[in-house]
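To fix ideas, we quote verbatim one protein's residues and fold tokens.
>
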Amino acid sequence: MDVETIRKYCLTLPHVTEHIQWGEHLVFKVGGKCFAIASLGPEGNAVSFKCSPEEFAELTEQDGIIPAPYLARAHWVALESFEALRVRELEERLALAHQHVFEKLPKKVKQQLESAGQKSRRVARGA
């Protein structure tokens, strides 16, 4: 697993945008809210993502997974290397992170995202 693989996977999730922030970080957002951050530089953790309080407690007990700097209070974890989780498990965790953030969005934002998604699907089909 590497940053490009994470990027490709995150962009398959509904309503995801990507941004370069804080110098060397690729940030994935849904509805303007971050759900995952990948480091583009040689320093720092490989990837960080949002999780539930239960997942946070479970994951931080594993080798290579730590509370994410600056974000741990909001239940974010950081993988010190891409090998800290198997590919499939990391994909599942990223999908859950996306879901956690999406569910907390205001109803109006969710509706805007859903209607924009429906319009883009109609355009893609040529309707």
Remarks:
- The chain has one domain: 3-125.
